Amino acid sequence: MKTTTDLFNLQDKVALVTGATRGIGLACAELLAAKGATVIISSRKQEACEQIAAQFQADGLKAVPMACHLGEMDQIEALYQQIEAKFGKLDILVNNGATNPHFGPIYDTDLAAFQKNLRCEHSRLLLHEQPRLQADGKKWWRQHH
Prior knowledge:
Elements: H1 4-7, E1 14-18, H2 23-34, E2 38-42, H3 46-58, E3 63-65, H4 73-87, E4 92-94, H5 111-144
Parallel strand pairs: 1-2, 1-4, 2-3
């Protein structure tokens, strides 16, 4: 019988956390690393990614810095190429990276700022990962049904 601890054993898993250098992204990265995953620390600035990865490594956790600006498709593509080259897989994606074209209440946000936020935060990583997610999902479904 598996215990609760076993259910969250992430040994041999590779996790990408965007926006991982502070706030919610950093907390997610810390938890995943504490559970055994190798965590790709990603944010716009390489130096910030390197600082956080070094802190994780000093604590005995597995972390690799890889900067990426989520508003740039070529950088997203380069990020996935680096992940494929280094690990050959990606098991977990925490799509936390954000842009802030507007500071303030959402009811004061104009449509262009709202759409920019959605494009940066959600659409690009999903569009890149969708074919793999579909293939993996179909494979899982065939194995379990």
